[in-house]
C-alpha cells in the first residue's frame, strides 16, 4: 500500500519591512547579488552559505564590473582602486568627474577612460584610439 507524501511547505516570501525597504550587496563567497531588509547587520547567502557583513548605515556603496573577469564588484564610494576577489585584478575606481569619453576610432563605440590618458583601447574591436586629438575628448560631468 503506497505511503501518502506530505505536501511541500509553502515557501515564504522574502522578508521586507512594511515600507518595502530592501537593499542589496554582493556575496563575499560566490559573488551573487543578495537582497536583504534594511537594518540587517549581515546576510547569509542561500547558494554558498557565506556570511557577508552589511556596511553600516550611511556608508555609500557603488559598483563596477571587473576588467579581468567581468564580475560585479561593490566597494565603498571614494575608493581609488578595488581588487577583485575572484581574479585578483586591481580595478581603478573612478568618480564621474575623473572619467572622460571618446568614440573608438574604428567601430565608433563610446569608450570611457581615466581623464588625462593619452590613448584608450576598445574592448570591442581592440583598436587603440588616441585621445590627444583636439575635439576628440570631453570630460564627463556630474
UniProtKB/TrEMBL annotation:
Its main location: nucleus. This is Zinc finger LSD1-type domain-containing protein. GO terms for cellular component: nucleus. It comes from Vanilla planifolia. It is found in: Nucleus. Pfam families: zf-LSD1. Residues 27-51, 66-90, 104-128 form the Zinc finger LSD1-type domain. Keywords: Nucleus.
Amino acid at each position: 500500500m503506497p505511503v501518502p507524501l506530505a505536501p511541500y511547505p509553502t515557501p515564504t516570501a522574502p522578508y521586507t519591512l512594511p515600507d518595502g525597504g530592501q537593499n542589496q550587496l554582493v556575496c563575499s563567497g560566490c559573488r551573487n547579488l543578495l537582497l536583504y531588509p534594511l537594518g540587517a547587520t549581515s546576510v547569509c547567502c542561500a547558494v554558498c552559505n557565506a556570511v557577508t557583513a552589511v556596511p553600516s548605515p550611511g556608508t555609500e556603496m557603488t559598483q563596477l564590473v571587473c576588467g579581468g573577469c567581468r564580475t560585479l564588484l561593490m566597494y565603498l564610494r571614494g575608493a581609488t582602486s578595488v581588487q577583485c576577489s575572484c581574479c585578483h585584478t586591481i580595478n581603478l575606481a573612478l568618480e564621474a568627474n575623473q572619467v572622460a569619453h571618446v568614440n573608438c576610432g574604428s567601430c565608433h563605440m563610446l569608450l570611457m577612460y581615466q581623464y588625462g590618458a593619452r590613448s584608450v583601447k576598445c574592448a570591442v574591436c581592440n583598436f587603440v584610439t588616441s585621445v590627444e586629438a583636439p575635439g576628440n575628448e570631453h570630460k564627463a560631468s556630474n
